[in-house]
Amino acid sequence: MSLLLRNALLLDVGTGEYAEADLRCADGRIAETGRGLGAPDGTRVIDVAGARVVPGLIDAHVHVTASSADLGSLRSMPPSYVTAHTARIMGDMLSRGFTTVRDASGADFGLADAQAEGLIRGPRLLFCGKGLSQTGGHADFRGRGEHLTDDHPCCAGVGRVADGVDAVRAAARDELRKGAHHIKVMASGGVASPTDRIDSTQYSMDELRAAVEEAEAANRYVAAHAYTARAVNRALEAGVRSIEHGNLIDDSSVELFLRHDAFLVPTLVTYWALKEEGRDFGLPASSWRKVDEVLEAGIVALDRAARGGVRMAYGTDLLGGMHRHQNQEFRLRAEVQSPLDVLRAATTGAAELVGLTGELGTLAVGAHADLLVLDGDPLEDIGVLADPKHIRHVIQSGTVV
Known about the structure:
eight-stranded mixed β-sheet, TIM Barrel, 2 domains, alpha/beta, Urease, subunit C, domain 1
């Protein structure tokens, strides 16, 4: 299977420069770029007539199984029903230009295998299984009056409760056994959980280090949900590779990001969407009231991290019917960053985070042939990426999808 794009403006995300060239894909990879390329027999040829071509987008914080903003309700849904919703959610993500996503709890090897085999239309799926939470933590969705929870591995929830170093090790090993690309831990309170405070810290340092040790033993890494500087700093000291959200970081956090060579994955759009629409899509009132605490702080944290030189990846964390706002994150980040820096977060930055530099997020020869043909220049107008109507073609593994 071969595809040739003629007369394209190919973006080098590293330099921010466009080059006039053709691009040929073969066997799912970028085979060659240059002027006047030949087309082997059977090659599909598309003349893009000077359109901009950029790498396929990577969203490094999604929940593809989150058909409702009430995450606690997922564990009572039949897995078959959740899968039906997930297929729709993933297909829509691909149509918005996201050719790879990193799931931050909920997705499993079954969904990843189904996508890879072509049974589900959607982005390449990097999964962690279920996020690890302490009792009463961000992935413990029991109300105060609930004392029992079904932690059967086939249940469709986004988290599992593990208390103590040994239990954390066993839970991490179990997710790694099932093929997890990374381990997710809840290191602070959150908006969606019913019984914790946003400003709480979660897991002891020994428990956090245990998760990191197990991930590193398997050549994987840990992503940590954390909001406040206190929670973020503890996670970074424990060796976590990526901080998810980080809305309330301070200057000491920036220093620790740099010292530990870690990543920040802001998710501004989810708070914007939760404030506007969360209650319409199942977010409980108690959770909706928490949104203001992190909404305004998020843009300040992004600016602090960007000015401090923290490495970042693009993330959205949208839930329920709010998934449709996935590209709006480009517009929100562009309030404090250049369009090129935002695009780097969704391409080379995210690829580096997940350990796939040179494989994803680039138009270099040998990389996966994931790319977008755009109507307009995203470096001049971020709206070209923020509004999917400007995407002329989505190409995944060398096929127009």
